[in-house]
Structure formats: structure tokens, C-alpha cells
Amino acid sequence: MIVETQKRIKLKTPDELLEVLKDRCFMRQEGWWSYEFCYQNKLRQLHLEDDKVVQEFILGVYDAEATAAFNQNLSDISTLKDPRSKDASQRYHAHQYTNGTLCDLTNQPRETEVRFVCSEPRAMISSITELSTCKYALTIQCPMLCKHPLFQEERPVWHTIDCNVLPNDYKATKVEEDKVESKQILMVTGDKEYPSSYQTEE
To answer: Which family does it belong to (predicted)?
Structure first.
């Protein structure tokens, strides 16, 4: 007697796949500013001179509660499509970083949405944008997310169309069938019928 057991493979969640980033920090320089992102820690905007920090703003500290609430409102997998992305199918998983340095213009703490996207070949900061005053979006390329099917690139669906040559004995519909004989239209009002002076065109 053979007994078959069904093994159900449980997919790792995006956060489980991202655990390899724990205790890692990433740097990106854009002109005057450098950005330092430490996974589940904080995001800093720095100006360095001779490898010394001369100006610093905290753009957000990892907020586990805000992240959980944000992702719970979406779905268990919590994947989003970036409307600014050139690739409309680009999905991302988001973490919320709040309670940064107070913003002079809004009098509110700076905050950042960190967006993790599937991208090869290595983990790195790919972009940072200011969505509105002192509110930022940081995009992190993560090859480990590519292991999850929801983050894999959408492939176009191809359909095959077969064309056949019409046989030589094929005849178009007879012209006689297309002709409409002229008919007289009757207008009925009450008990009387009046012939119309309009006739259908041939």
C-alpha cells in the first residue's frame, strides 16, 4: 500500500525574505548630500567633509507599529505598484520610518516610506525622492525579494493566430440577397391606414 503525502510549501513573506538585511547599512551620495539607510533602524541625510559629518538630518526611525498597520490595511502580502516607476509592473513592499528631525517648514517630524523592490544583482539604494515637504520615499533594490512570485516580472501572454487561404471556389454572398426590394410604408392611425410617400432606396 502506497500512501502519498502532500507537502505544502509555505512561501516566505517579504519581511522574512528581507531578514538578511538586518544589521546592514547602505550609503548613497547625491551631490551635496549622502544618505545612510540602516535596515529596521534609521535613515539619515548627511553632509560629509573629510569623512566627518558636518550636517545631519534624521529622515525617519523604523516604526514597527506604523509599518504593521500600513501593511495590514493592504493585504497579507502587502505589495504595491509604484506610480512613479517607468515599469508599471514594478511592485514594492513598504516599511514606515517616522519621527525624524523636526522640519522647519511644516513643524512636523520628517518621515520616509522605504520601498523594497525586486532587483538584481545586489541590495542597494536606487533612489530617494521628496514626495512632499519633508516626506520622502526611499527605494531599495533587493534581489532576495525576487524569490517571491508576486515580485517577479510579469510576462506578456502570447497567443497564436492561424491564418488560412480561402479556397478557390469560395464565392461572395450573392448580390441578389443583398438587394432590398422597395416597399411601401403604411402609417396606421386609429382604424385608418395611410400609404406613405416614402419608399426605401434600392
So the answer is: Belongs to the OS-9 family.
Reference 110, options 188, 191, 27, 44; nearest CA is 44
Is 193 a domain residue? no
DSSP string, 71-130: HHTT-SS--EE-TT-SSTT-EEEEEEEE--SBPTTTSSB-EEEEEEEE-SS--EEEEEEE
Instruction: Return the pLDDT at 140.
Output: 94
Report the percent of the chain where pLDDT is more than 90. Answer: 43
Number of Cβ within a 10 Å radius of residue 127? 15
The label of the residue with cell 500512501 reads 3
pTM over 0.70: no
Looking at the domain assignment, is residue 2 inside a domain?
Answer: no
| Residue 197 belongs to some domain of the structure | no
Could you read off the pLDDT of 61-86 as tens digits, one per residue? 999 999 888 877 665 444 565 544 44
